[in-house]
Request: fold
Amino acid sequence: MKGKVKEVYETENENELEFFFTDHISVFDKVIPSEIEYKGETLCRTSSYWFSVAENIGIKTHFIKTILPNRMRVKKVDVIRDYSKLNEKTTNYLIPLEFICRYYVAGSLFDRIKNKEIKNETLGFNPDYNVKYGDKLQTPFFEVTTKLEKTDRNLNLDEALKISGISEDEYKSIKEMFLRIDEKMNNDVRNRGLIHVDGKKEFAFDENRNIMLIDTFGTADEDRFWDADKYEKGEFVEFSKEYVRQYYREINYHEKLASARKNGLTEPDIPPLPDDKIQKISELYIQLFERITGEKFM
Reply:
């Protein structure tokens, strides 16, 4: 199965899958017609690092082993797209939700605040406070979207439970696991000069309906990181795929794409990245790997 940037293969073991991390890159649900050298390897090695960290603090994962430079073996779970087949007795399946936690005002959260889709009080701010990009949230903002639909939808708790077959107690357990690994991540990367701004994670049940942390996380694709020293000076230096998103905003591609989607028109093709941007992005992925893990890439 080929995803936007990660390919998934059956293996000789029917209970395992192999992830192949490509050098492709996508933004706004569009695969860019450019390849980023070493991107796949950095994501594979970064994600392997975080799986080891998670397991060391007692969080069950589907990770089995890394096959360097850019392949990973994981436990296989079923992907069930028919929500009606999911209930509190279903086992060994991908929970069809994407779990997100935000610690600072950035990205789409800032847009939603400006558009008054999210109230200040929801984020712990006073109603009359002028929320600014980069503000630290009073408490982590945890939310859920769909995972298997063509376009992700934000869900409230009742909707999330209804479509996923999980109980409220299981939802609370997932949130606790998410925040526990993020607490470790936030502290570790801060010691290496990074701020963990936000990130997403996915979970599944094993054959005994134990919750597992799955897929990939803590990388430049799933999470957003800022340079801590620059942040203290009021600058937001991105160490994440947000750098790429900003480029397509600057050339007005995102505006044209959003307009087409809103009006039901044909979506414009995403243009390739300039050579200088490709080189910069490759360096960014390598640098982020080293700062997250404390390891040398080469």
